[in-house]
Design goal:
The complex is a heterodimer of chains A (about 180) and B (about 450).
Chain A (H helix, E strand, L loop, with lengths): L3 E6 L4 H15 L3 E4 L9 E2 L4 E3 H9 L7 E6 L3 E2 L8 E3 L5 E5 L14 H19 L18 H6 L6 H6 L12
Parallel strand pairs in A: 1-2, 1-5, 4-6, 5-8
Antiparallel strand pairs in A: 3-4, 7-8
Helix pairs in contact in A: 1-3
Chain B lengths: L12 E5 L3 H12 L4 E5 L2 H10 L4 E5 L7 H11 L4 E7 L3 H9 L4 E5 L3 H34 L7 H13 L6 E4 L6 H10 L8 E5 L5 H9 E2 L11 E2 L1 H4 L4 E5 L6 H13 L1 E3 L6 E3 L3 E6 L3 H6 L5 H7 L2 E4 L8 H18 L5 E2 L1 H9 L5 H15 L4 E2 L6 H4 L10 H15 L4 H8 L3 H11 L3
Parallel strand pairs in B: 1-2, 1-3, 3-4, 4-5, 6-13, 6-14, 7-10, 10-13, 15-16
Antiparallel strand pairs in B: 8-9, 11-12
Helix pairs in contact in B: 13-15, 17-18, 18-19
The chains are: A alpha/beta (about 180), B alpha/beta (about 450).
Chain lengths: ~180, ~450
């Protein structure tokens, strides 16, 4: 997959980025680094919807991608694409950039107690999912595969953080021996 | 990006039509991640150009576009590509227009912005419905093809008459009685009646009434409840229930016992019955077609067949002539069975030579079309060349008295007496009456010609 650069867009907890980078490195066996550059997401803000357009954020971060690698934007704001009410993230299919939002991954949004561990797990899964799209993977319906589409957190929670065997082989990764997804 | 629905996307092609570039791009990207093939058009004219170049399964059409709007485009799409599914995309506040689009045939509409789950559900449901429609259409044509392969065939006057009667009676729900000798194709006629009726996509259930004892026939017809009798481990539906919506074909109805005739009459009139061992009344809707080779009028006179059942069944009668009365059909039927069995046995048999055909044309075919079919099947199996010869035909046909080598008066007398005795079932008194000779003379001839 090549090196991955995680960039914070707007205000994102730096500890969360480090933990994400560590986990992605373990899962993808590729160098992963993180940075908090000076990227102002305001140009992607839509005042009428009080949300940020994920496609414009992708444009903002795309040129930060390392050579032969991918850039993953992490944003705390709510994302949308025109037509849809919201998205958890977006990626250039077979491209270099992906973006994920933590906004709808928080338990608090659904009236539940905050859970930092669960939030981290959800962010890892959504990051893996969008990065999967950047290497050309489509949605996969193998139970547990991280490329399963998920529009709600409960659907994020039931899938694993890894590609199924087929998806892993498509991107040249050997599935982890401990992977629950076969 | 979020999505939750599993759809077979491998071949689904979507066309997005929207004048806003950002909508086209985001929808295309959204659907491509799910494996759809997506094309995007910025206006109606471009959409129509795309449709000339390739086929699409579904179009997502924005209702407000400059020039030709979504409503007008939908109308054009329906003319150009009537099978295309259309989902209208509308802004909040133009729902009335979207409802109008539904009335004009759009599959559904979505209001911007739409919940990702909702959009996926609608597209998935639309494609699933399209697949069901296509499957249904394919299965219906397959059913029609299979049904026509077993249709009643023949070009003789007798066969034409049968076909005309079938055409007349098929679309109605009237009870039909098919009469004819064994092997004439009464079940084919029954199937043709079923296939020509509005019930053709429901079951055709044949039941040979002559093959069962009363108790077995009762169980076959009405089904039984668990524990109704020894061995009834499960509840079982009878033929009447299986025929619900379709056609019940009662073959050899003339052989049903007097006791069962009463039960049969009751259910044919009320379309209600109770399973054997049960208490609940079951209602069914079926059409009745029956067949017999028995002289039902004689059976009625002798008290073996109920008069009320006779009149209940004898509503529209189709008499299927024996093959000997439509010899001109022998050649066509033989050719038909030849190609059928050549294909089934994978043998390169293509024709029937003149002598073999002549032999078959002369034969009386007491077993009718069934006997002809069996003869051709056998001939195809044993035939060593591309053409069936007389030697390939069954011995009964080759050495039939119907095409004798010996044309002496004595030989003709012998064959004629043997034929009359066969027709009377060996009844010497009746045979003698038919022949116009007394019984003693006939006995002497029988002894002389060793006819017994």
């Amino acid at each position: 997959m090549g090196p991955i650069l995680i960039v914070a867009v707007g205000r994102v907890h730096p500890g969360g980025l480090t933990a994400l980078a560590h986990r992605l490195h373990t899962l993808l066996r590729t160098p992963v680094s993180e940075t908090i550059p000076d990227i102002d997401p305001q140009s992607a803000f839509d005042p009428s919807r009080q949300q940020y357009r994920s496609d414009l954020l992708l444009e903002l971060i795309a040129d930060r991608a390392p050579a032969d690698g991918k850039v993953l934007g992490v944003v705390s704001h709510d994302l949308f694409i025109p037509v849809l009410t919201y998205v958890f993230g977006e990626a250039e299919l077979g491209g270099r950039a992906a973006v994920v939002s933590t906004f709808r991954l928080h338990n608090e949004l659904y009236g539940l107690e905050a859970d930092a561990v669960l939030l981290h797990e959800r962010l890892v899964k959504e990051a893996m999912h969008e990065l999967g799209h950047t290497v050309g993977l489509l949605h996969c319906y193998t139970p547990g595969c991280v490329m399963q589409p998920s529009s709600h957190t409960d659907l994020v929670d039931v899938k694993s953080e890894m590609f199924c065997r087929n998806c892993a082989l498509q991107v040249g990764l050997e599935p982890l021996p401990t992977s629950p997804v076969q | 990006m979020p999505e939750t629905i599993k759809v077979d996307h491998q071949t689904a092609r979507l066309l997005v039509v929207d004048d806003e570039a950002v909508v086209r791009t985001s929808l295309s990207r959204w659907f491509e991640e799910d494996g759809y093939q997506v094309a995007a058009a910025s206006d109606a004219a471009e959409a129509l150009r795309f449709l000339q170049l390739q086929q699409f399964d579904l179009a997502l059409v924005d209702i407000r576009m400059p020039g030709m709007d979504g409503m007008e485009l939908q109308e054009r799409l329906r003319q150009v590509c009537p099978d295309l599914l259309v989902i209208i995309i509308t802004a909040f506040g133009s729902v009335d227009t979207a409802v109008q689009a539904l009335k004009q045939g759009a599959f559904d509409y979505v209001t911007k912005p739409v919940d990702p789950d909702h959009l996926s559900h609608i597209v998935k449901n639309a494609l699933a419905q399209r697949k069901l429609t296509e499957d249904k259409s394919r299965l219906e044509s397959e059913v029609s093809r299979l049904a026509s392969s077993g249709e009643f065939k023949g070009e003789s006057d007798g066969a034409r008459k049968v076909k005309e009667l079938v055409t007349t009676a098929a679309p109605t729900d009237t009870t039909v009685m098919i009469r004819g000798e064994s092997g004439t194709g009464k079940e084919l006629v029954a199937r043709a009646l079923h296939m020509g009726s509005p019930r053709r996509y429901f079951p055709f259930i044949p039941l040979n009434c002559g093959g069962f004892t009363d108790s077995l026939l009762e169980s076959e017809l009405f089904g039984h409840e668990k524990g109704a009798f020894t061995g009834a481990h499960y509840r079982r539906k009878g033929k009447l229930e299986l025929a619900d919506g379709g056609t019940l074909f009662l073959d050899e109805v003339g052989n049903v016992s007097i006791k069962m005739q009463m039960d049969l009459l009751r259910v044919l009139e009320s379309k209600q019955f109770v399973r054997v061992g049960g208490t609940r009344t079951v209602e069914v809707d079926f059409r009745t077609i029956c067949a017999t080779n028995r002289d039902l009028e004689a059976a009625m006179r002798s008290g073996e067949f109920r008069e009320d059942l006779y009149y209940r069944l004898n509503v529209f009668v189709i008499n299927v002539p024996p093959l000997r009365e439509r010899r001109e059909d022998v050649s066509m039927l033989a050719q038909h069975f030849l190609s059928e069995y050549a294909r089934a046995t994978n043998k390169p048999v293509e024709s029937i030579d003149t002598d073999a055909m002549h032999c078959m044309m002369e034969y009386r075919w007491p077993g009718n079309v069934r006997e002809l079919e069996n003869a051709i099947e056998r001939a195809v199996v044993v035939c060593p060349s591309r053409s069936i010869r007389i030697d390939d035909l069954p011995e009964d046909i080759r050495h039939s008295p119907d095409h004798p080598d010996d044309l002496s008066l004595e030989s003709m007398e012998k064959r004629h007496m043997a034929d009359v005795l066969r027709r009377t079932g060996g009844n010497v008194t009746r045979a003698a009456a038919i022949l116009g000779i007394n019984r003693v003379t006939l006995y002497n001839k029988i002894r002389k010609y060793s006819l017994r």
